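Cont'd.
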Amino acid sequence: MSGWVKKQLILFSCLLVAIIGIIAAFNLKADYYDFPIIEARTVVWILAQTMLLFAAFILAVPVFVLIIEIGGYLTKNERMERLAKDFARLLPISYSITAILGGLFTFASFLLFPKYMKFMAGPFKGTFLLFIILITIESTIVYLYWTTWEKLQGNKKLQHIMLGVALNVVGTLVMMTANIWGSFQLSPAGISPDGVVTSIKSAIFNYTFWPLNIHRFIANISFGGFLCAAYAAYKFLSSKTEEDKAHYDWMGYTGTFVGVATMIFLPFAGYYFGMEIYSYNAQMGITFMGGALSKIWLLQAIVIAVVFIGTCYYLWLGLDRIPGGERYKKYLPYLSWGLVITFAVWATPRAWVASLEDVAGGTHPIFGTVGVMAPKITAVNLAILGVIVTFLINRRAGKYIPQGREMFKYMQYILIGLIIAVNIIVLYMSYHVDSAVRIKMSIYTFLFMAVAIGFIYFFDGLLLKGAQIRGQVQWGKMAQRSQYALIIVAVSNIWAMALLGYGRAAARLNWHVYGVLQDTSKYAGLPSMGRATVIISMITLLFLFLLGVVFKLTATDKKEV
Amino acid sequence: MNSGTLKLIIAALLITGFYTWFGNSIPQTAWEAPKKKTFTPQMKPSELAVEGKDIFKSAGCGVCHSVTGEKLRGPDLSQVSTRMDSGVMAAFLYSGTAVMPPAVKPPANLNDDEVTALVAYLQTLGGKASVKIGDIKPLK
């Protein structure tokens, strides 16, 4: 009980800091205040994004832990149970850090941008209270989840899993409550012509509310998987014994599997998000994708290329520890070139202007229409297919395909061929329709791909059912460079999240709430991409540092409860 | 600090450093929020057109419309004044179309005088500016 009180004290102290900020802001006369040396915008930017990364982490870890815990429970796998517990251990301290960052962010936002925060506090007062109630419940469940880990074992394990489910449900509600404010800023609804919220229901369920929820939920699971893999890589590189190396190698693979399995759905969640932005305001969509913010997508393509290629590189190196894996190595150069080409297409900018004053909205002077959205969607779909094939190779590498099962292999080839053909046909058609139709087509292409990928794995299950194993996977027999790939993939993931967080905020241009509340501060414009990347890198390193503190504190905490 | 920690820090610094370098090596385009201009009834149509040209750039019209004959998303405006008069131009700017948001709403968010200046500029594309402040009546 004393532990629970201690955890709640941290949470309530942070709430108190936030409330002091709110009360002070309502007594302030000016619309904006500055912060010495590093500027008000940068302070709020760093606090908001670091808090969001931690918020993603504390949402991701319970999902990840629950998946592993259920897997361990169903397969009676002790190793999975150990992995789940190792990560659940991080939760209490991570919650405290998130609460501290949240308190500081609220405090700073109200004091530095009172005009905007006072506007939001009016109609959304109820959601602010709901948020406080939910995070109190959530932190209580976290405490119970962690402290009952040992007590609820054996025939009580299901109760513990249900506690994990409850934690995830409440965690998702917390995320959705926070998304109300972010999505409303981007695509406000339920507003009268003079800028007053007249329908709170419409304001909550605005155009981008559900896309943002879906995008963040998927991204968070992927984030958790990759951070688990990076932690495993760090431990692998520090390990002195073969046993430890074997454990952390397996942990890295499991984290990567969860990260990739969810990441492949992210581009489609992104298309849905994009579709809703275009539906809300076509010009915002154009500004976002092909106008003032188009360089964000160039950077995003580079970062995601590192994530995809880094993950595949790790899996390709992993073939060395699978007896029989060498049979597939001859295909890897083709796969790697395929991935490089797809990302080269994705990274091709739509237009290339030296100044926004000169922007003409045309196509790239050298690459022409290669830089428009249509080939990018095809490219990323084919890159996803490359990752799927890599996983299929990994599954198949250590096994003998039983006699008479060739039919399932050919079915897989047909499906892969169909995916390629459909994407090429859609690419051709995309050049002849407008943006809104093209984005809708990308959703249908995704649905087709999701079903086709599902069938590929279904046939893979039939193909390998009861297959004889060529030899046990030699966990721990992994080249060190593979572990660096995992670290780079995780850091890139964090960087990509911070980049897209900036992108979402920047899409509003000089509006706090798009079209409703104008930003009249001296920071109403957008920084150059170079300056933005400096701050994004600072945020990434700050987050990694704080994460390191969490790992350090939990590693040295001998008292488990 | 153990060797694993050191390797982790080096890897993190190298990859964030690479992205920062890349972000700084591409052409830099900071975006300034458009500043509201002051217009007077005494301004000549040609003076309004000069201001209108600036508005055309800063309001993002050029993202979709070319003024040089190039094919972009929206119609080319290089000879627009030969196809429509100032009233039709103003109607488009106030009402928008299925794919073009009204210029009086975000992100352009122009006021009536700015719309007039923009119409004056559009008149110079294939013709001569003739409108003055007060000539264009706002459409509600």
